[in-house]
Specification:
By secondary structure, the chain is an all-alpha fold. Helix 7 packs antiparallel against helix 8 (136-148) and helix 10 runs antiparallel to helix 11 (190-202). 70% of the residues lie in helices and 0% in strands. The longest helix has 18 residues, at 47-64. Residues 1-27 form the signal peptide.
Length: 269
């Protein structure tokens, strides 16, 4: 059963992207296919791939900046150049996932995984997609492949996603292990730190939650979720000055957020 106190980000993603399920493409059992270098580190082998890669690189920049329509156009152009270029299917899947087009995102994730079964970026994204669709075991299997890939330098990503996938199921003890590993791989991983704080809060270990929150806010920008967690942690610790500071930040920076509305209503659950 999912804990009702799972971090807000996880719940929001799960609700936004929930949809029908089908049998996901299973990872290959072949050791030669299990681990590949990320597509960005592999040479292109044809003129068509060169053109496709150029469009994928451009589309990825648009995707990162939130220009999903333009990113989708670039992915389609890349596929027109070379329909067998896995990163183009991967980019299209990511964009469609962001646009809540679950069915077509799944098709492109599956095609990308068929073309490059050992690509860690694809396994990380596809694994998270499957977790969001509540296909937890299949998702965790993909994420594990990405995390174990010796060519992957961004292992903190699949480790964090594995923690989120487990947290979505209410498995805090297992999730904590992955979040700790994610922080070991990247001490600046704010998402993992915030989720460790949330787990500590749910366990009523308010001093640990306080420490994780402070570290997280030193690493990156505060969000409505992190400030609201800070309000509740400091409230339970009895530190009224720290609580008031979080309240002030939440009110001034995110006055229209659901978290501030909860504060106004006095709903500290």
């Amino acid at each position: 059963m999912r804990s009702r106190n799972v971090p807000v980000l996880v719940v929001a993603l799960a609700l936004a992207l929930a949809g029908c399920t089908s049998n996901p493409v299973q990872p290959s059992s072949s050791s030669s296919a299990e681990f590949q270098r990320p597509a960005a580190d592999r040479p292109v082998t044809s003129e068509a791939q060169k053109r496709a890669k150029a469009h994928v690189d451009l589309g990825t920049a648009y995707y990162t900046s939130g220009r999903f329509g333009t990113a989708l156009d670039e992915a389609d152009t890349a596929l027109a150049d070379d329909d067998s270029y896995a990163p183009a299917h991967h980019l299209k899947a990511l964009v469609l996932m962001a646009l809540d087009d679950v069915a077509n995102a799944r098709v492109n994730f599956e095609r990308a995984a068929q073309l490059a079964p050992g690509d860690p970026d694809i396994n990380n994204s596809y694994g998270w997609f499957l977790c969001v669709q509540k296909q937890y075991d299949a998702g965790l299997q993909r994420l594990d492949m990405a995390a174990r890939n010796p060519y992957y330098t961004a292992t903190t990503r699949p480790l964090t996603n594995s923690g989120l996938c487990l947290a979505m199921q209410g498995k805090d003890a297992e999730a904590e292990t992955y979040f700790r590993r994610a922080v070991q791989a990247d001490p600046d991983n704010m998402q993992a730190l915030l989720n460790l704080a949330a787990i500590a809060y749910r366990r009523k270990n308010y001093e640990a939650a306080h420490a994780y929150l402070n570290t997280a806010h030193q690493r990156g920008q505060a969000s409505p979720e992190s400030l609201w967690l800070g309000v509740r942690v400091e409230h339970m610790r009895g530190d009224r000055d720290a609580e008031a500071s979080y309240v002030s930040q939440l009110k001034s920076r995110f006055p229209t957020s659901p978290q501030y509305q909860k504060l106004i209503e006095g709903n500290y659950e």
